[in-house]
Design goal:
It contains 12 helices and 10 strands. By secondary structure, it is of the alpha+beta class. A 7-stranded mixed sheet has the order 1-5-6-10-9-8-7, sandwiched between helices. Strand 3 and strand 4 (about 165) form a beta hairpin. It binds phenylalanine. Phenylalanine binds near residues 172, 250, 253 and 284.
């Protein structure tokens, strides 16, 4: 009997249960009425009297051990169950969520998106092209005379000379690429980064962004140009905005015009932003020169077109009254976080 108690105690200690079924097996095997514990209890009567006391003590210890082991197994299985059935164990779901910082859109991106969405509503698509360009797409196709100053070193970052490869100085190069690939009707916007070899100051930078637009079809006239940009100015700067066109010169447009809008800060009365003139310049524009059309494989006898181009930094500076263009590229969070409320 003493050996049996010892063996049973060993068996109980070694028992492992991973599931409710195994727990039930333990109960049946050891502690149920028909289990080994009660059968060994039944043997106490066969123990000689002088050993009864010792045997009773050992049986009690065994009973205690079996009970404690049972509780231990229950606890173990309960814990395993709760952590596998739900991931939220130990997490207080009533706590308020911890706040996280929202980033903000860069003002250049916001203004670019706003310009694009105004023109998309009137049928313009968006086209893209390389920032490293050859002479043809940046200059020659656009009717730049061979000795035009814009080709010279002071304006252009050349990467290679003869044949010339340079960082594009405007996104008109993208328009050339579109016209080479596609016959009219063409209505396209080319936003992108451009590069000019200029000294960096509060007013100018050697890297900036443009959005250029091109519309080529039958019977496109200067009136279409005026109305399209008038529509844009009112959408972008407010209903009461006035627009004026000043004669200008670009090699790729004829006639050409500089576009001014009435100053939306002082409504034309004169302030610092408009240098007390009541007007601010926002874009260059003109009718696409017939030479440019034929350079790109479009028949100028059949088609006409207009083009315009504006600097995104300039529009953003006017819109948000930013006085230093360098702020756009400095990545100062104190500057950038001021644009949190723009939802474009
Ligand atoms: N490409 C010109 C520039 O970069 C802008 C422009 C575009 C002017 C189209 C007229 C027509 O300054």
């Amino acid at each position: 009997m003493f050996d049996k108690v010892k063996n049973l105690a060993e068996e109980i200690k070694k028992f492992r249960a991973q599931s409710q079924e195994e727990l039930e097996q333990y109960r049946l095997k050891f502690i149920s009425k028909k289990g080994e514990l009660s059968s060994i209890m039944g043997e106490l009567k066969n123990v000689p009297n002088e050993k009864k006391r010792e045997a009773g003590q050992q049986l009690n210890e065994l009973k205690q051990l079996a009970k404690e082991k049972f509780q231990e197994l229950i606890n173990y299985i309960d814990q395993a169950d709760s952590s596998s059935s739900t991931q939220t164990a130990g997490i207080d779901l009533t706590l308020p969520p911890s706040s996280f910082e929202l980033g903000s859109m860069h003002p250049i991106t916001a203004v670019r998106n706003e310009i694009i969405s105004i023109f998309e509503k009137i049928g313009f698509n968006v086209s893209d092209g390389p920032e490293i360009e050859d002479d043809w797409h940046n200059f020659s196709a656009l009717n730049f005379p061979p000795n035009h100053p814009a080709r010279e070193m002071q304006d252009t970052f050349f990467i290679e000379k003869n044949p010339d490869i340079a960082l594009r100085t405007h996104t008109s190069s993208v328009q050339v690429r579109v016209m080479e690939k596609q016959q009219p009707p063409i209505r396209t916007l080319s936003p992108g980064r451009v590069f000019r070899n200029e000294a960096i100051s509060a007013r100018s930078h050697c890297i900036f962004h443009q959005v250029e637009g091109l519309y080529v079809d039958k019977n496109v006239s200067f009136l279409d140009l005026k109305q399209t940009l008038y529509h844009f100015a009112k959408e972008m700067f407010g209903k009461n905005t006035k627009v004026r066109y000043r004669p200008s010169y670009f090699p790729f447009t004829e006639p050409s015009a500089e576009i001014d809008i009435s100053c939306f800060i002082c409504n034309g009365d004169g302030c610092n932003i408009c240098k007390h003139s009541g007007w601010v310049e926002i874009a260059g524009s003109g009718m696409v020169d017939p030479n440019v059309l034929s350079n790109c494989g479009i028949d100028p006898e059949e088609y006409t077109g207009f083009a315009f181009g504006m600097g995104i930094e300039r529009i953003a500076m006017l819109k948000f009254q930013i006085t230093d263009i360098r702020l756009f590229t400095e990545n100062d969070v104190r500057f950038l976080s001021q644009f949190r409320r723009i939802n474009h």
